[in-house]
Amino acid sequence: MIQAMLSGRTIKERAVGLGFDLAGIAPLDVWKDLEFSRRWVEKGFNGEMRYLENPKRFDPLMVLPSAKSVVCVGLVYNAPLPYSTETAGAASGPRAWISRYAWGRDYHEIMRAKLEQLRAAINESAPEVETRVYVDTGPVVERAFTRLSGIGWTGKNTCIINQEKGSWLFLGVILCSLELEPDLPAPDRCGSCTACLEACPTGALVEPYAMDASRCISYLTIELRGSIPNEFRSKVGSNVFGCDICQDVCPWNSSRQSAVISYQQTQSQHERPLDPREVARPATTAIQDFHPMIVEPDHARVSDGATSGQQATDNGPRTT
Questions:
Q1: How far is CA 303 from the centre of its chain?
Q2: Which of 2, 30, 33, 118 is deepest in the core (most CB within 10 A)?
Q3: Which residues contact 289 (CB under 8 A, 6 or more apart)?
Q4: Nearest to 89 by CA among 256, 237, 222
Q5: DSSP 15-48
Q6: Sequence spans of domains, the chain
Q7: Residue 320 pLDDT > 50, yes or no?
Q8: In what helix (H) or strand (E) does residue 132 lie, and over which residues does it extend?
Q9: Contact 104, 292 (CB under 8 A)
């Protein structure tokens, strides 16, 4: 049998070996989450994003009839630079904010290339297996499967949050005909925190775990094809392409949450609290393609060490 030759553990180890930060196996049975997505669309929370109404999104068997399991992966994209909430008002002149996920190369290309390598590894061990790969571009609700794969829980800001890595994650999935042992879902650790709901300038987070995308600044500055409604214009602030506020304020994307957990754990064990220098910082990526691309005039690029016609980044000449 195919299952005897290839286990979920082997696939996850291979995924990490290919550079993914997180990997997990989800069952196909995520109908409760998919029903939530269907009702979310019925409420009109998708705004003008009609592709989210595709019925295939609510039934993975319409995408791959032989599907039995879903391989889920996550890749951290957080660059080690200040958050938008930390830079507000700090600039001496006019400044604009571009969402963190869009600072570097197109993440679809990077994620897809790694997922295709993972798919090739699966096919090498199990040539008969059928697969479909998706990175935020197909009729699949990646977050529904990721939530049940053990990678993280769905936060009140609707992002997938991992206890160690935070929520700055690109997600990808491979639907496959392998019957793999699913991982246990991660417990919801948002607790009584409502920082994201309170911080959202436009009130897009209408309740915990529910976002009206038609009010979200990311939707208004990226997806909306017409003019931004008057009621939201003053609330968009300096955001010109996307918005990171609900993730910026999340304690799981800050060292503060780690400090609280460390303190509580050590206190309960009657040990000394950890020194702040021992507390883990928010997870960041070493992938240079996710770091900001700073395009300047030729003379500036040359002065930064790049040759004429070569882009420069905050980390020096761009070589890829």
A1: 35
A2: 118
A3: 104, 105, 110, 320
A4: 237
A5: HHHTT-SEEEEEES--HHHHHHHHHHHHTTTTTT
A6: 2-176
A7: no
A8: strand 131-134
A9: yes
3-state secondary structure of 98: strand
| Selected catalytic residue, list 29, 106, 136, 298 | 136
**Cα–Cα dist 226/77, whole Å:** 30
Cβ neighbours of 236 (radius 10 Å): 16
Provide DSSP, 116-131: HHHHHHHHHH-TT--E
CA distances in angstroms from 143 to 74, 146, 172, 218, 308, listed in the order given:
11, 5, 9, 18, 43
Q: Where are the alpha helices (DSSP H) in the chain?
A: 2-5, 8-17, 31-42, 84-87, 107-125, 142-147, 195-199, 217-218, 230-236, 245-248, 255-268, 298-303
> Does residue 244 have an active-site annotation?
no
Rounded to a whole number of angstroms, the distance between the first and last alpha carbons of the chain is 42
Q: In whole numbers, what is the pLDDT of the chain averaged over residues?
A: 86
Number of neighbours of residue 316 by Cβ within 10 angstroms: 11
Taken in order 285, 288, 290, 296, is the CA torsion positive or negative?
positive
* C-alpha separations of 108 from 46, 71, 136, 307 in Å: 21, 17, 8, 28
For tokens 């070996």, the residue is: 17
- What residue type is assigned to position 65 of the chain? P
Q: Which two tokens stand for residue 58?
A: 């609510």
CA geometry: angle 181, 28, 43, nearest 5 deg: 145
Residues 166 and 283: beta-carbon distance below 8 Å? yes
Is residue 254 within 8 A of residue 86, CB to CB? The reply is no
pLDDT (mean) for 198-215: 98
pLDDT at 240: 96
Which tens digit of pLDDT belongs to each residue from 161-192? 999 999 999 999 999 999 999 999 999 999 99
Residue 295 confidence (pLDDT): 61
Give the burial class of 94: count Cβ atoms within 10 A of its Cβ; 0-12 exposed, 13-18 middle, 19 or more buried: exposed
Contact in structure between 102 and 309 (CB atoms under 8 Å): no
Query: How many residues appear in the chain?
Result: 320
